[in-house]
Write a structure and sequence with these properties.
480 residues; alpha+beta; 5 domains; 4-stranded antiparallel β-sheet; two-stranded antiparallel sheet; 54% helix; binds zinc ion
């Protein structure tokens, strides 16, 4: 550090030696003697600004904590900057040789030597290479400052991460960029919709002015305060812009080029919108007129056809009429339903759906199916509980049983008998597992059997009784 960032003056080097062991970790108060005995550091005039930048930025780095949270992304920041300045190839490599040469040209070699940062164009693995690489190696902070100085950038404001990721377009407000509006460039837009470009994955901000309905978007992130005045694409010009365009266009005094300059778009856009505006009304009117005429003619034709058909076939039902001329019938149904229903013969009541169901017969049929399926379920492994829903579902009779179970008394009583509640199912499991264990000559305790039957900790008295019964079987078997 050679300059005081506060007083913008060269520092004075004190007479106190700091390289010997004794003084290294001591603080010395600044007094008259040390100033008198100290020597002013001579800084060549032409380097003053550079040293001031370094002093300023160092001061900020030491005192503004949030600057450091951005350090992770410094490299990314450098790359973006280098890309803007054309030092990145299409294959995303840094044009290192070119960059080194420009860097060395932009700093006096004496200056670089003064801060121990000089290198030669042909050198590899210099600090300059390191500082641009991924932050595997930490680099002397002064070198970062040098690079920022070279890139003509201040230390990125606030946390870079915060700015670039969470607020790629800053926190607003943003200007309305409608040149036709008298509030052009005024910071009126307070909201920005951020989306991601599907191809480049870069953020895209969309800004809409609520006053003139001018909407524009821009690819981000913003790196510079001035970026907020850039338009990527205009998404909507809005009524103010269109009115201004028409006003300029009908005036007759302005050429297309002149209008395009006033409104901040290219001549093509001006032409397109001027022509469109005139064209729209004429074309649209014509189109609407034509469509209406065609529709009227079509309606006439279909109505006439249908009336003739009804007249010629007095006994025809609606369905029969539709079958003879389906397209006409459907067209009328969609476009002139009221007329159609008024002119059609009265609907005939169909007798098909009221055919009587013989419930007794059904009951008998279903009951056989029920018994068969119950047996299937009870012999299945792994064991499953036999519920009304399950058996009905398997027989595809769910809605039948739900709606008409009272008309099916046999089924109802069978269902009541065979279905299991949780206790019933637990008991079935105990009996089955106990039998299985006995068959294999396993001696089992109450807890073994409980586990085998998949019982939880809480069992009812009834279930507990069954467990004991099954243990009793064991005792009997052994005593026999
Ligand atoms: Zn506006």
């Amino acid at each position: 550090m050679l300059i005081c960032s506060k007083h913008k003056k060269a520092l004075i080097e004190s007479h106190i030696p700091y390289r010997n062991k004794q003084n290294k970790h001591k603080f010395f108060t600044l007094n008259e003697t040390s100033i008198k005995l100290g020597k002013i550091i001579i800084i060549p005039e032409r380097f003053f600004d550079k040293f001031l930048f370094i002093a300023d930025t160092s001061y900020r780095l030491l005192n503004e904590k949030e600057l450091l949270t951005g350090v992770d992304n410094l490299q990314e920041f450098y790359l973006k900057k280098l890309q803007e300045k054309g030092y990145i190839t299409k294959s995303k490599r840094i044009r290192m040789q070119e960059l080194k040469s420009v860097f060395l040209k932009s700093f006096d070699s004496e200056f670089l030597r003064m801060i121990n940062s000089s290198f030669n164009l042909g050198d590899e693995n210099t600090w300059f290479h390191k500082v641009l690489r991924k932050p595997r190696v930490t680099c002397y902070p002064l070198r970062h400052l040098l690079l920022l100085l070279f890139l003509n950038e201040a230390f990125p404001n606030n946390s870079i991460k915060d700015n670039l990721e969470n607020y790629p377009f800053g926190k607003g407000p943003w200007p309305c960029l409608n040149k036709a509006a008298n509030h052009y460039k005024e910071l009126l837009i307070t909201e920005c919709v951020v989306t991601t470009d599907s191809k480049t994955k870069q953020p895209v901000g969309t800004f809409a002015c609520s006053q003139c309905h001018f909407i524009y978007s821009r690819r981000g992130p913003d790196y510079d305060d001035k970026d907020i005045y850039k338009i990527g694409r205009v998404k909507n010009f809005g009524i103010v812009w269109i009115n201004k365009l028409n006003e300029l266009g009908s005036n007759g005094k302005y050429s297309t080029r002149k209008i395009s300059l006033i409104l901040g778009v290219d001549s093509k856009t001006v032409k397109k919108y001027l022509e469109n505006d005139k064209g729209i009304t004429k074309d649209k009117l014509k189109k609407i007129k034509n469509e209406r005429i065609i529709k009227e003619e079509t309606a006439e034709k279909h109505k006439k056809d249908l009336l003739i058909l009804i007249n010629d076939n007095p006994g025809f039902s609606r369905t029969e009429l539709r079958k003879v001329n389906p397209s006409g019938y459907i067209w009328l149904y969609r476009n002139h339903r009221e007329w159609l229903l008024k002119n059609l013969p009265n609907p005939k009541i169909s007798h098909k759906t009221t055919a009587k169901i013989n419930w007794d017969q059904r009951d008998e049929e279903y009951s056989f199916l029920l018994i068969k399926e119950a047996i299937n379920i009870l012999t299945e492994e792994p064991l499953i509980r036999l519920t009304k829903t399950r058996i009905a579902k398997r027989l595809d009779l769910q809605s039948r049983f739900e709606k008409n179970i009272d008309k099916l008394p046999i089924c109802k009583s069978i269902l009541d008998d065979v279905t299991e509640d949780i206790e019933d199912f637990q008991i079935r499991r105990i009996r089955l597992r106990a039998e299985g264990l006995r068959k294999e000559n396993f001696y089992y305790s109450k807890s073994t059997l409980g586990r085998a039957a998949g019982l939880g900790k809480n069992i009812s008295r009834k279930v507990n009784k069954v467990l004991h019964e099954e243990l009793g079987f064991l005792d009997n078997a052994h005593s026999n």
